[in-house]
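Fold these two proteins, one after the other.
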Amino acid sequence: MTFTIRHAEPADAPALHAILTSPHVVLGTMRLRHMRLKNTEDRLAPDPNLVQLVAASDGEVSGFAELVLNTNVPRASHSAELNMVVTSERSQGKGVARALIGVLIRLCDGYYRIRRISLIVWVDNTRAIELYRALGFKEEGVMRDFVRTEEGYCDALQMARLSNH
């Protein structure tokens, strides 16, 4: 699968909304299945503390990643949070998430001078955990009953990647 990575644009909202409300994304995020398109449009509003990227293949959005910067918090400006990485169902396992995270890591290391990138992932999302480990993220702790699911509660892992600068 060939795709390009670029900044997310307001025109991406309908395609992104379809991904964000799809069952496989709802299962692994805090998203709800029935959200309004306006929520996704609002998410894409310009914000200097967000880096939002999409992966596009044949003009269609196949993935999205969002990094939250702490530029307004002097003692935390060296850190950022990988807030979300999602792909369309048919793009899973094709390198889209890896490529999106890779671009964000390079931006953090090279331009933003971010030393620490943190994230939270459900413990049952083994594919994501394996990917994060492969990209240098390490487990820092377990948050018990972090998210409510249809079956009950699920723990989450706190993970982070530290750079050398």
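Now the second one:
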Amino acid sequence: MLVNDLPDNVPRELVMPFALTPRRATTVNPYTDIIPKLHEGPPIFYGTDVFPGRQPGWVVRRAEDLRKIYADTDSFGKRGNTGFAAGIGESWDIIPTELDPPRHTGFRNALNPVFSPKRMGELDGKVRLRAREYIDKFKDKGECDFVRDFAIPFPVSIFLDLLGLPQEEMQQFLDWEFSLLHTDDMEDRVKGTRAVKAYLLNAIEDRRKNPGDDLISIALQLEYEGRQWTPEEVFGHCFNLYLGGLDTVSANIGLHFHHLATHPADQDALRQNPAGATVAIEELLRAYAAVTTFRICTKDVVLHDVTIRAGDRVAMSTPLGSNDPEAFEAPTHIRFDRRPSHLTFGYGPHRCLGAHLARRELQIAMQEMLAALPAFTVQPGFDVPFYLSNIIHVESLPLVWAR
């Protein structure tokens, strides 16, 4: 973006690239090298390439300010913020994440019991079996590429189970996910969106005729304002599960195990106290928050003497907010007893619907890996690549251990 192209409400001194979202891989650890430097800068700045398609927008770094924006649904909306529907010339909503109150409230109230801690806890047996299934494939080899062999297929297998879809479809879903989330090629993004929509609508029609106990069948029975959801609304919810269930949990698992592989004392502490995984996960979620979501300003708002205009986009960077030194003492230091109130799952009415399921997947992955494998490290000499985007993740993590 050229300086002359900037809107007149943007101070020139606040314009800079947003180093967490260039959609490229680097061997520089963003959590130890990039995020601390961003926290030395202004509380709000104008990123030149924040959004898909290298579009600009505001970046807010302080946890306190992020919480205020999360809570202010009158001034900061979510409707259409991902651009997936608009990208194919349509206007459906991703449910509930792209809804604003009062519609959001009605749909979210219908979904909350489906994703309650109790309901998600009932899935523990199935989730644990899936984890063991993948670990059994490499536990006796003395090595694995943890991202390829576990961090990606494990949560995707859970997504397919929840929606009652065949495990054989995994690679197809991963290919579509790459088109939607890992490329700036807008034509690929359009093709991927259309393909996922067609597939899910077919699955929804099948469940309408042949209902089961999967989440598609359950959604077809949910109500909003006294009526059942339409097939398009059920699709919007399934699309939300697709985006959240494939990429974000995979990213978290990879980042957490990178930490354990490079911090043997922390790995040993969890081996000595497996029950401590429940608390440790919260600190790892804080320290390695991965997701940047977006808001669209609906009316002019002044923040730190900067005017955010109606129509401006705002990046809600949980990696910044959860590593804010004004909110967390020594944020780069991992302390399993910290019990942090982090922003990894967002905050306020739009707090992540699948947070309870994600926690169970992360806890079970950690418990089962540590139970099955001896002490593991990153393969000597390998520089771990971090992919920087609105979902930060490690692209490859070769682990080795004594056979």
